[in-house]
Amino acid sequence: MSQFPLLADFHSQKEHWIARLLYFFFFLGVGSFLMFLNVYYRSIGLSGTQIGLISTLGPAVGIFSATFWGMLRDRSGKMRLIFSLTILGSLFWVLIFSQTQVFLLMLPVVALFNLFYTPILPLIDSNTLRLLGVRGQRYGRYRVWGTVGFTLASLALGFVYERTGLHTMFVIYPLVLLVLLWVGTGLTNQPVRTERAVGYSVRQMVRQPEWLVFAVSIFLLGLGANGAIAFVSVKIMAMGGSESLVGLSWTTIAILEIPLMLFSEPLLRRFGALNLLTVAFVGYVFRIILYGVMPSPVWAPFVNFLHGVSFVPLTLGTVAFVNEMAPEHLKSTSQGLLASVLNFSNLSGVLIAGWLYDQIGPVKVFLVLSGFCLMGLVIFVVGQLVIRRRRVNEAVNTPDLLVEEDGGG
């Protein structure tokens, strides 16, 4: 390849453009389907508790499926094959889902859909981080393409569904999956490293205090955030809003998300993953409180401006933190583990939020959910302080470590 630098550069740029397009079409699908799914459930007569229950199936399956597919990718290296299987499985089950409206029949169909759907984003993330290598701080420049896709879908399709009916999303989303499958055919297989058993390495990684504090605090944050996001569209409709307002409320996220993702590299370099995560905790606390107390559905687009100081730093911080902790042969597995933690929090959040929505109403439920985020913030900040103090004490009590650090400084 060294004899043909232009050809090598073409192949390299092709991989990078594939990574960008994967984000674009994946989140185009999220904006066209998942963001309207709870509104669809409500439109066919499901109660808040039923919506909460069926919404738990995705994260419940995702707890193990994301890690399973990530480990399979790391052990086999067959990225293109595994990615194609997840897309084909998602496509098959969403078509079955489109013909199912009986609650009890929907449960297994939704579960099987998520068996294939939940690992897609972790696989895309691990592929992007592999391409970037030591330039992982540029992750946001690729992830921003997902923001563009999501924004276009939520802006345009809210008006489309208002005129044609929500069932149209079962036509649009399968088409998006087909395009995503086609783009994924350009993925390359990746080298397999077998210097240590994957299971042993995973156990060693998750036993670290940094991972434990991170996992517990992110779980609590995800519980509150996912519960709130799952029902904010339902609240908009209950307050007299329309499908187009639901779509519009989500398009406002691009106002801050796009520039922040584009400048993620200097943000990560300047503040680091841990500081960005702290900002995310605080941002979600205030954002969810405002969801609860907003007096009119037209507030929703303006509340979503806080997306830029909640979701964006959370995405950048979590992906960077997990990637930094993981050894090279566990990059896909580690992103799968992150997805498992987030799916577990999502499982708890939507179930609790669904039950609370019916019991205490659409205002208090958001206030309770913000409390979970606040608990996560306290654990995260205190945990990092304890870990930092322990490291200082270990360094003071280990002169050789001080000499080594000085020598490397």
Layout of helices and strands, plus pairs?
Blueprint: H1 5-32, H2 37-43, H3 48-76, H4 79-97, H5 103-117, H6 120-132, H7 139-164, H8 169-184, H9 198-206, H10 209-238, H11 243-251, H12 253-262, H13 264-293, H14 300-303, H15 311-325, H16 331-396, H17 399-408
Describe this structure in words.
With 409 residues, the chain is mainly α. The chain has a single domain, classed as Growth Hormone, Chain: A. The protein has helices at 5-32, 37-43, 48-76, 79-97, 103-117, 120-132, 139-164, 169-184, 198-206, 209-238, 243-251, 253-262, 264-293, 300-303, 311-325, 331-396, 399-408. It is globular, with a radius of gyration of 21 Å. The two termini are 38 Å apart. The model is unreliable at 1-10 and 401-409 (pLDDT under 50).
Task: List descriptors.
disordered C terminus; Growth Hormone, Chain: A; single chain; globular; mainly alpha; 409 residues
DSSP helix fraction: over 70%
Quote the CATH topology.
Growth Hormone, Chain: A
Q: At the fourth CATH level, what is the homologous superfamily?
A: MFS general substrate transporter like domains
Write down how many β-strands occur, each being a DSSP E stretch of 2 or more residues.
0
| CATH domain class name | Mainly Alpha
Our measurement of the CA-to-CA distance between the termini, rounded to an integer number of angstroms, reads: 38 Å
Integer average pLDDT: 79
Q: What number of structural domains do the residues give? A: 1
Strand content: under 5%
Total count of helical runs of at least 4 residues = 17
What is the rounded Rg? 21 Å
- Ranges where pLDDT stays below 50 over 5 or more residues in a row are 1-10, 401-409
